[in-house]
Amino acid sequence: MRSTRQADDLSTAARIRDAAIVRFGRDGFGAGLRAVAADAGVTAGLVVHHFGSKDGLRAACDAHVLGVIRSEKLKVTTRSLNAITQLADVEQYAPYALYSLRSMQAGGELGRQFVDRMAEDALEYLEVGVQAGTIKPSRDPVARARYLTYHYTGYLLLWMSLYGGPVEIEQFRTELRRLADEVTLPALELFTDGLLTDRTMLDDYVEYVNAPPKP
Amino acid sequence: MRSTRQADDLSTAARIRDAAIVRFGRDGFGAGLRAVAADAGVTAGLVVHHFGSKDGLRAACDAHVLGVIRSEKLKVTTRSLNAITQLADVEQYAPYALYSLRSMQAGGELGRQFVDRMAEDALEYLEVGVQAGTIKPSRDPVARARYLTYHYTGYLLLWMSLYGGPVEIEQFRTELRRLADEVTLPALELFTDGLLTDRTMLDDYVEYVNAPPKP
DNA sequence: CGACTCATTGAACAGGTGTTTAATGTATTG
DNA sequence: CAATACATTAAACACCTGTTCAATGAGTCG
């Protein structure tokens, strides 16, 4: 039947890829090919037959996740300032969020692209806030967007590294909410009032970088 | 000669442990026992003879690093608010800093303890600032200290995950300085002026959490 | 139908891992 | 000096990894 191929479920290759995204997201990229194959109900040999190698499989996963992120709705992921509650919001995309985190943890190209993309979206979002008058302007908006993005992403990565070995998706979301609760007050305080009582450090610094010493 | 044992260098076990700290810090805990053994100029068998197992070796490394941190000067590590320049300052302790980062990345007990300790020190330091009038008080000082610590540590961890595969100690320090430069302006801006132009979000949140018990 | 292509499997392979074991040398002790 | 305990090594072991290979099966096309 041709219906077996396309209608029954997904194509076998796609099923393997999806299983790999979930498995890698849960256990990290140290997970074995045989585990991925078992999740997809196939054999390890078939995995490399379809994807060439484990790296090929990972590349396919990267491409797919990046495609999903780019395609449409996951722009929501970076629309909020709080990168933690962000991810908790989109329930159906939790596996992709987990996979992306693992990607950052393992340090692949997808990880870098993902973070850069989040920084771009954050910049956009911050600009809107500045225009609307709700967010203060910055002397270097790009640097600020990167700074905030790296911080929130790093917070999440650190938490996953410290407390999440193999991460179940359900546990992932509930823990995210707990983290968000823990973070909200200090974050709002910092965002509203800052931390320092006087501005000499900042003023001194901008004066320092604007005064070209000796070229 | 008994002098061979203690004076010539360190004891063999200590030499292995130190080599392991450096190697694990550079390559992560995936590094093989044979690599560690070769660094120490011994055999893999001897490593497990002394430490029982690879986990035993790692436990010994953890204990030693934690001991060094506790013992004395590494309190400096957490004295500055900026956790990045922190580590760049203490040159001789860079291997310990790297090892600790790997520990956080791998998620062992040492990683958790290290972060918790940094949070405690940050709390102490922030309190001093509050007393001195240079830092604004917080409604929840403990949460704020944890928040700031996790953020800066996470920033560092994210950077290492994304860009640092095997990390050379020299490269580690120079990169830390570059990161510090990149971060200084946005951080100072945020710490001085905050991010939001009005305080309704904060006030609403505080009112919300205080609503039930507070008359 | 026959030939051909592709998906799929199970077994085998080569390489790496942590660990074990037996042997050897080298101190320290009785 | 002899005996004993320890440090150390090289080789082997069992296991797990990604990958390869030959065989089997099912679907497609001429």
Describe the structure.
Two copies of one chain form a homodimer. Chain A is an all-alpha fold and 215 residues long. Chain A starts with a helix and ends in a 5-residue tail after the last helix. Chain A is built from eleven helices and no strands. At the A-B interface, helix 7, helix 8, helix 9, helix 10 and helix 11 of A face helix 7, helix 8, helix 9, helix 10 and helix 11 of B. The structure holds a DNA duplex (30 and 30 nucleotides).
Name the shape of chain A in a single word: elongated
Assigned CATH architecture of chain A: Orthogonal Bundle
Largest sheet of chain A: none
- Top CATH class of chain A: Mainly Alpha
Q: Tell me how many strands of chain A there are.
A: 0
> Cα-atom Rg of chain A, whole angstroms?
21 Å
Q: Approximately what portion of the residues of chain A adopt beta-strand conformation?
A: under 5%
Continuous helix count of chain A: 11
CATH superfamily of chain A: Tetracycline Repressor, domain 2
The pair of chains with the biggest contact is:
A-B, 57 and 57 residues
Helicity of chain A, as a percent range: over 70%
Amino-to-carboxy terminus distance of chain A: 74 Å
Oligomer type? homodimer
- Rounded mean pLDDT of chain A is 83
The H-and-E topology of chain A, N to C, reads as HHHHHHHHHHH
CATH topology of chain A: Tetracycline Repressor, domain 2
Protein structure class of chain A = mainly alpha
Total domains of chain A: 1
Q: Uncertain runs of chain A with pLDDT below 50, 5 residues or more?
A: 1-8, 73-81
